[in-house]
Amino acid sequence: MRRAYPYAKKLEKRYIKNALSTIKSKMIKKTLRGFLEADKKGEKDYELMVCNPGCKDTFFEAGKKMPKSYEKMIMKKYPFVLDTMKLRRKQIFGNKTSVLRNNFYEKIPAANIKSLKKHGALSGCLQPMQQSQDFKNIKKMNK
């Protein structure tokens, strides 16, 4: 009887160790999968910002009202922000129907536009306060 007990303990420890390693590997795979999916979504967002002549389906699309497709996308992701986005759009657009100049937001500094074009951007559908972070991401995408 005495000999069976230590052997059972060893089996139990081995089983627990294997179970823990399996759980850890599954958690790591799920985490990595989440990062990859987020990265793909991020690429699509940046594609809309810098490879989208006319800024179609974005905040800066020409027109008096916010585009329906952009509104639906905001409602899916962030429903609590929609009213704020509409107010912000009214502030930015004012009485104008378009705030784009040569497919770039008119308040982006010329040096930044030059840098965006240098890295292959076709458009600049982003606000100046976002740009410092976005330039870093655009450079990463082009590598």
Summarize the structure.
The protein is mainly α. It has helices at about 5-50, 70-75, 80-95, 110-120, 130-140, and strands at about 100, 105.
Could you give the topology of this structure?
Elements: H1 4-50, H2 68-77, H3 82-93, E1 100-101, E2 104-105, H4 110-118, H5 131-142
Antiparallel strand pairs: 1-2
Give a quick set of tags describing it.
mainly alpha; two-stranded antiparallel ribbon
Folded structure, characterized:
The protein is an all-alpha fold and 143 residues long. The protein has one domain (4-62, 98-142). The protein is built from 5 helices and 2 strands. Strands 1-2 form a two-stranded antiparallel sheet. It is elongated and about 85 Å long.
